[in-house]
Write the structure tokens for this entry.
Amino acid sequence: MKKNRIITMSLREIKKSKKRFFSLCVLSVLGVSFFVGMKMSGPTMLESLDNYYDSNRMYDLKVISTLGLEDEDINEIQKLNNKYRVVGSHTKDAIFNDGKYEVVLRMHEINEGMNDILIIKGRMPEKYNEIVVEDGIEYKTNYKIGDKIKLELEKDDTSIKTDELEIVGIVISPEYLNNNQVTQSRGNTSLGNGQVAYYSYVSKDLFDSDYYTEIYVLDNDATKYKTTTKDYLKKIDEDEKLIETIKESRQKDRYIKLLNEAKSKLKEQEEKVNSELDKAQKELDKSKTELDNGKLQLDNAKRELDNANIQIQQGNQKLKESKEELANGYQKLINGRKEIENKISGYDITYDKLADFVKKYDSSSFSINDIVKLFNNNNIDIRGTIDNSLVNIKSVTSTYGIDLEGLFNRYGINGENIINKTDVKLNDVLDVITINQLKKLILDDEFIILVRESIPSDFAYYNEIRTSLNEFLNNKNNIMKLFSGVRDVENGYSEYYKNSRLINEKEEELNQASRDYRIGMARYNSGMDEYNTNLKLYNDGVKKFEENKKAVEDELELAREKIEKMGEGIWFIQTREDNNEYITYESSYNSIEKLSNLFPIVFFLVSIMISLLS
């Protein structure tokens, strides 16, 4: 009866709060579903990783050594267990420019049946200078299939055959699980900033090395265990201990082999040096006779050089006197110019303008414009502005009482056609005047007044032209008196520059002679040095031989000490647990496992809170 009452009351409560009851049911279903999903994610991740590693034959162990590895190491590891698949491989780090920065690219040798890579675009390398890269290079840089990567190698680095590789494909590798979009480093390196930016794979033919950088070991018996399980880790631990049994002997054998190679190379070098010393001693005997004959020729050359030096000294003295004479003449020109500048200081003109005016006056291109330019910096063309002028020459002559016909007759100007015209412009007058007549006319006040008053008042440079013509009108006689002095100064400058060039040419001849003398003396001294050096080499030949022999022995000892300091070499045996990408993946799995274990507690607490609130 009591049980029925509880059921009845429960049903009654459910009917009263259907929405709350439905919400609790949905929450329970979602919580259980989420819990189951999280609980299954970890095992699924491990299952996927194990399948991926097995299908791509990912190594179980990797052996690296500070002295490199060789085929004998591979054979000895293979003898430990016939279930092992053992492969020697090469890895090379190099710097290249990814378009933004200098970064490190890690190049792995493509191994058959070990760490199989998957081509996702393009093809596998077929030549030694071809490369396949991870997809990170394609979307992080401007490199694409068909481009060439230029590696930055040391000058003496001969471990690979070329520093330029063509990209032929994009790949993914079981050694690198994480996407490059979220992984900033592909491992550590001794180059650049210490981080590997990208990985790649190349043909084994690219490497030109007599040792391996690593040996990969795949235990076929370990494939029946899932990665990260205790059984797998136990199996790999047994393999690692098995390899440790040959580690010491292989390290020692490798050391002895390298030491013997070093001794052999040094012995060859010693024999080579001794042979070269014997040859050098014979050559010294022969060169001594040649040097004696050469010294006689050098003595004769020395006498010729001494005579040439005397001539050079005499020439330099004459050159000095010519320079002093030229300098005195130049100072006179400076004084003459200053004297003229003092005389024109009140005319508002410079010496250079006056010199240009005189030069124009003496040329066949002299014009009325040159008078204006003498007192004004503007480039004014009187003739080009007069055609539109309304000023009539006849009105000017009438106003100022200028006899135009008489003016023409005084200077032999043929102006009959102009005199009889009623409307005469300034250009009409200028057209019938020759250059020689103009040079005389500018000294006539009436002509200057005629030109000045013919300029229209609305012309832009009206004031400048009038001012310039008035200045010339008031000072023309004094200015013309300076023409002779200006010509003397300018001609003096021309003569000065001409003589300067001649003196410079003579000085260059003497300098060339001095250079030839110094070269000759240098050759003579060099010949004497060479003679003395070779003579000393001849006398010290035997001693040099002994010294070089000792040097070879010291070099051999130094090489031996260097190898001994380097030690016998150390083997490092790594498992998948030492792979950074594997560690990151395993860490993600562990995080999901911890979260899934925590979830039931959280869900239980939420349920209690809801029940208490209800």
In short: The chain is about 60% helix and 10% strand.
